[in-house]
Amino acid sequence: MCGIVAYIGSKQCQQLLLEGLKRLEYRGYDSAGMAVLDGSKITLARAVGKVSNLEDKLEETGGMRGTLGLAHTRWATHGGVTEANAHPHTDDRVGIALIHNGIIENYASLKTYLEEKGHVFKSQTDTEVLAMLIGELYEGDLEKAVQAALREVTGAYSIAVICEKEPDTLVVARKGSPLMLGIGNGEFIVGSDPSAIIAHTTQAVPLEDYTVAKVTRSGFRTSDIHDVPVTPKVMQLEMDLEQIELGSFGHFMQKEIFEQPKALRNTMRGRLDTREGRVVLGGVSKFDKELTKTRRVTLTGQGTALHAAMIGEYLLEDLAKIPAVAEYASEFRYRNPIVEDNTVVIAVSQSGETADTLAALREAKERGALAMGVVNVVGSSIARETDAGVYLRVGPEIGVASTKAFVGQVAVLSMLTIYLGRKRYLSADQCADLMREMELIPEKMERILESDARIRKVTERYIDRENWLFLGRGYNYPTALEGALKLKEISYIHAEGMPAAEMKHGPIALINDGMPAVFIANRGRQYDKVMSNIQEVKARGGRIIAVATEGDEQIKRLADEVLFVPDIAEPLSPMLTVVPLQLMAYHAAVLRGHDVDKPRNLAKSVTVE
Ligand code: G6P
Q: For domain 3-242, which CATH number applies: 3.40.630.30, 3.60.20.10, 3.40.50.2300, 3.30.1460.30?
């Protein structure tokens, strides 16, 4: 979603801002812009499309000079994808330029008020309203004008503002949309995401909601919107540059798929005590007393995170014998849910910033649930607002289509299941057996990755087909959903995932000659049932691509293509069966010539509802 980068210091900042924007490209956007203040004049440039279009424009116009500036990638919400709607936006009174992530919900009434005061708007955005409002309230102090304006707005924002009358001031603020202030050597770099900052410094202050920071070349002060000082908490960014660079891979998605064995080893490191048959989770153990009494678990998330949550539901009921349900955060939040005593709500999220998931978490807390997070980004909003949590530790995920975060989420939910199960029905031996199986997963994954070239060939054979089915049962029903989501996200092929049995209740009508149906048919309790479903599709002319367990001879006779995965205990199998599906989606997108890491219309982190 929208990205922010801003700079104040002694360096000419145009290039630095462009590089920051490029590092934010992965979040998803449709236009970009920049404003730089040189002495007393702001120069502005905006362009529809890629950051490279903005770069070309800057080159054509001779570029910008100045050591204070802001830059933005916009993902349209209010108003179409046009240059006039791209950020930065300016006021028409004092020379203010502003960039904004989030949505100003009461922009319409504010706009009417400002129009009555004679302001003339040039865009259809909610952001321009905020720029005008700050201009309207400006009385010689930018920080105060921003505070006053933010007291009038409802909604979510992270903003960066400059003013021609104050060439040594950058004001930034946050509510509901992430923003951090990087502290460099005699300079400050602001970013909506650490990847925009990390090339310059590892010291940063993640701003809390309702915090305003006034940043000058010599220092900064933080306050709330009523000007009450706030003590800043400086943190060390753990990311390093190499983690967010491509290396020898063609795309971040590919890099992240291949990084999965290593990522999983990090997720599990120090957490599996096989000798004692117990899982060690530091961020959860202080709630042991409450967790022993858990009567119900609701797992919530969106997109890929929801698919991981669904696997968590199966794990918790099957192994830990705790009633569990996985639900879209967006639905949970608004359906007036019943939260009984001793309910644990687990928010699953890579970014920790997904607006729907955050809102569901707050709703659950409000209703008395113990809030737990299964999150990748350290210090993110969800991580901060949960009572307890387990980080994924899979490293930054840049590819918009989530891969390593998914397996990290499933691994963490497996560990949580063993943790909670040990308190109830699982013996130390059963736990140890499961943990030993988990330890073998990275190595087994490496074996699947070795078959990448074959997976590409299989994908190539079906690349012209516009409709695909993904079918699985039990633990691998969510895997089927995930396989379909991956394919549609980046290759724009229509794909549907569903429980294999559901297919005959309608979707079977879609099957025609040559339609690819991907079955997750590894060995498990419902293997024979899946075989019957395969027969049903085959009888109607569908082509079968099966993900099956190594050594399965029977399936070779039935399926048109077989992608083998090593044998593994069924509850843990999605961490392996998903890998061929990720690779198929990746190759399909590349073969169709799409920009894998920047799929159309998608955003990596969706911070609006
Ligand atoms: C967006 C992304 C998906 C992701 C979902 C949830 O829609 O495009 O890939 O699964 O958000 O994101 P989260 O950061 O909460 O896991």
A: 3.60.20.10
